Amino acid sequence: MKWIEKIKFPFVILLFGLYMGISNGVAVMKTTGWDADHLTALVLGNLVLIFTLLVFWLLYRLGDKLGFGYSDFKGVKSRVNQELLTHYYWWSFGILGLLMVIVPLFFMIHVPDAGHDWDFFIIFNATSKLHGQSFAHLPMTTNALGYFLRYPNNQLFSILFNQTFAGLTEISLKIFVVTLVSSVLTSLALLASSLLVRILADCRLAVLFNCCAAAFLPFYLYGAQLYTDTLTLPFVCLGLLCFVWAFKALSVLTKLLGFSLSVTFLLIGFTFKPTVLIVLIAELIFLLVNKKWKAFGVVLALFGVLVVAKDFGVKAIVSSDPVFSQENKERYSLPVMHWIAMSWAPENKTGGFKKAIRLYTEQFDTYQKKQIATKQLFLNNLKKMGVLGVFRQIGRKLIYTWAYPDLNGLFYSLNHENPLIHRYFDYSPQTKVGNVTGFIFLKMACFPYWAMVVWFMWRLIFKMMFHKYYWQQLWFILAVSVFGCTIFLILWEANSRYLYNFSPLMLALALYGYTNRSKKENKNESDTLYGHSMF
């Protein structure tokens, strides 16, 4: 394979040059009017792109140095200084944690006005007026009280948000504290993911994960906004980490503690984001296919007990605000079937949010009428689409979910407080407001990274699904989780943002797939099933 070593660097330079040429061409074509800001964005965009491609190349070289290159996999571990590698791991672990706390502060959102009113802005602005008071003090408008009444899944989060930041009356201070809390949660999630990768594989892959996670832009974009996506990120990662820790433990008490923590973390996450439950289901599937009946029974029993406690706690908190009464729920809440019917409307070109469908559902004055109407709407949509139309809609949903290299973070984080980002990179494709030149360059900078993640991750997932050998690996849980999330988003409302709280798992899977791309099997003892007396 020496010939590969000789040609790959000039080839990479040529490839990078070609990609920069394409990026500049797209940016120039999309920019309709040139002025000083657009010319500056062109220069800054090229610098960002050069920096991104350099980081991409350095990550590849790091993988090569760690023994994940094309040359040879055999005997690599014995040539790596494990003591030095452990030292590098903890350094990269600490740097990753700090970066995730500090860098999102530079992507802080400008409030109270925003490029568009999505959930984060609505909740932030509403609670800034309430300062801990009841939501009944809000006007009954679409983006005020009406929002909180029709989306019961956001009521708990909104109440906690309202009470937690009630004392912050100054808007600038509040957004800083909110951003800091969000970035700390992001940091915690990625540190837990790093430990998870280290347990599942080794320090080599964990070092590579730390460096790749630090280069993933969505962690900084969404890390600057405290919403359910960011809030549930650490619960997904900690839930998986505790499960793996419990499964590999020798002590029965340690196993029980780990499984209890895992179910608790995942149920807390599920309270704020339904997709988090998919991880718990994936854990149960893993135990089931490997015939770990006692462990399966324990996790299922813990789920049964804790879900009752969770429901009791949620009802107690939500009912503490009288405006969220059963009467108002009956009148204003949107039923589950609404989201399914909305995403399967033939006129819905993305499979995501559609305002017209929301207005249709809201015209019915009881929950039961809404449920019946949306169910019938869904059935009518299927009949209208036919078999080919159903497959076309699935394609639309997959595109809207997977075709955004930034997980649509640039759209949801529009209007940054940082003047450099706001002036040269913020842009809304819907309203055509902002700097399209810099926006295109940021998208193009994210694309190579995301393309590699998607390719190596799905390559590994399909390999794991169809080879029973991989069912014994704890990595199988991550694969089933991402696969399950994809199926859920096909059935439910599609959105690239909904992948965010699974993104550390996706990155870990992609790296594991990359490092195992030339091997038929990985018989690394740390990856295979651990069976002990009780479980």
TrEMBL record:
Keyword annotations for this protein, in alphabetical order, are:
Membrane, Transmembrane, Transmembrane helix
| Keyword Membrane attached | yes
- Going by the entry's taxonomy, the superkingdom of the source organism is recorded as Bacteria
Ranges that cross the membrane: 7-27, 39-60, 88-109, 171-191, 203-221, 233-253, 265-289, 295-313, 436-462, 474-492, 498-515
| Protein name listed in UniProt | Glycosyltransferase RgtA/B/C/D-like domain-containing protein
